[in-house]
């Protein structure tokens, strides 16, 4: 089948959103489909949002391919007679972040107009889509609540889950993620301050642009005397092979972002490597994957609780191994696979 | 530097411009920059979509980049304070192709209005950029003639050159290119009727339409040239191509009125082989100097045959001309060092 995959990007900021689209493209190609992949730039700056929304709407892909699969907003506004949405997040300031401190539109008549315009544009896109998928239960609920639309959950798989392996159950907990405040690497370090064992923590990932201050805070915290050098930070993008090796030898993985829309690739990678995952009760989408004391720990976002979970895994390697094994099985239970993804998006 | 290369994208269509955009992006990375290729879908049927595409490009934004390098209409309208153009071509239907059979746009009030819009928009926004480079004198001249806008030529180099080598000067001339009427493989084949030396012709390339191939095969049959002409009618790998170049006596590249010198000529010179071209081939005259780096002849079979025979008669001369061609590429600064230095300056 001839398929156009489209998404919006912020150049040079790679996150799950970019990955989901490029992995889908590759998986489609490997399954023998002819795919063209468009990554259109998008700036979240308030004053530029509506112009760009209109730009996406003006782009017409009719007659180009048998279907369009649109991923990140506002690519769902691109024109195509057979449009499938795999909706991964709203322009959140117009929805759930409105009225919170993350609202980045002004509370003026103009700002409200912008907000409502985005909502109307979304309604138009949802209305004309052949099918609407989303990447998590959190998103499905949000789409239902705000747009009154039913979306089917389609969990995004890894492109190559088989590359992850399990070597030793080591002495360190691994946190692989972009270094940015809401991923709460700081909370993981604070957790370490409460540990009573010799468990170590390795934090690895690309610092976000303009996150120099955050990185310095993390480094200062990591050098606290009480920790005795048990926290290391690798502040750069981690090549695939290095990540595989780090995961293969870790004790467990930790992923405690604040209120994410989906389970996030790091948790999935850890499970494919047979490792348990520590997450927090307010981490959002991770809760769809991680069950407390089954394939990891779901603990309150409080340093003491996190430290306790770390210690428990360190003291009981058998528990760590068993939880990791269950993680692998959990992926199967949730039907997270490339076959399933292609089957749904092409049906 | 963080650089976005911005080009049009027509889904599922790839040609020379897409190849150049890919090459530029890769080379920017090799030179230590962070680079991303942004393709903006372009639609032109029905013609009012041209205007929608133009507006879309103008309304888009590119955050988090220090430099935009835009290549084609209408992608080059995308706003950015640090934008340079490496213009491959404008929308020619509104300019030099207007009034020709290739006009594309309808000769109606609507067609005229679209043409006006394109010209006005070019005049407005092409003056709001850091600098305009073009890929050829032809493009620069058109931009000056139609819009009165000045530009600098920056010749597109080959992506990779190291695999081109010379392994002697054999008994065949080589013509690699898409097989199509305007590239005139048929003329090269016909010239073999008049070649007196025992030189052969090898043509490689995929036919654009079935009739392009039929025509050539008929020529070969009618004039019993099968023993002297080999047609490899498929895409060939870079390796196959460089192997064919390495043992060739010379290269034949005789398209009709092209804007640019063509990558084929550069490939030939990197293999140290002289190039035979025609005096109506257009851009090739930049890199083919008659009697110095090859031969320029009228587009006639007998004249081509004579040039091929002249190469065969003096292989030492063929070698000297091939090496002179290689030197000329250097003198013209057709290199990625030069291109990247200018585009990121």
Proportion of beta-strand residues of chain B: 15-25%
Strand/helix succession of chain A: EHEHEEHEHEEHEHEHEHEEHHH
Number of strands of chain A: 12
Strand arrangement, largest sheet of chain B? Answer: 2-1-3-4-5-6
- Characterize the main sheet of chain B: 6 strands, parallel
Query: How far from one another are the termini of chain B?
Result: 10 Å
Question: Into which percent range does the helicity of residues of chain B fall?
Answer: 25-40%
Order of strands, widest sheet of chain A? 2-1-3-4-5-6
Mean pLDDT value of chain A:
96
Anisotropy-based shape of chain B: globular
| Structural class determined from secondary elements of chain B | alpha/beta
Question: What's the average pLDDT of chain B?
Answer: 95
The helix-strand sequence of chain B is EHEHEEHEHEEHEHEHEHEEHHH
Radius of gyration of chain B in whole Å, from Cα?
A: 21 Å
Structural class of chain A: alpha/beta
Q: Which stretches of chain B are poorly predicted, pLDDT < 50 over at least 5 residues? A: none
Describe the model.
- The complex is a heterodimer of chains A (about 350) and B (about 350).
- In chain A, strands 2-1-3-4-5-6 form a six-stranded parallel β-sheet. In chain A, strands 9-8-7-10-11-12 form a six-stranded parallel β-sheet, with helices on both faces.
- In chain A, α5 runs parallel beside α6 and α9 packs across α10.
- By secondary structure, chain A is α/β, with parallel strands linked by helices.
- Chain A is about 40% helix and about 15% strand.
- In chain A, α6 links the parallel β8 and β9.
- Chain B is about 40% helix and about 15% strand.
- Chain B has a six-stranded parallel β-sheet. In chain B, strands 9-8-7-10-11-12 form a six-stranded parallel β-sheet, with helices on both faces.
- In chain B, α2 packs parallel to α3, α5 runs parallel beside α6 and α5 crosses α9.
- The longest helix of chain B is centred in the middle third of the chain and has 17 residues.
- The model of chain B has no long low-confidence stretch (mean pLDDT about 95).
- Chains A and B meet through β2 and α2 of A and β1, β2 and α2 of B.
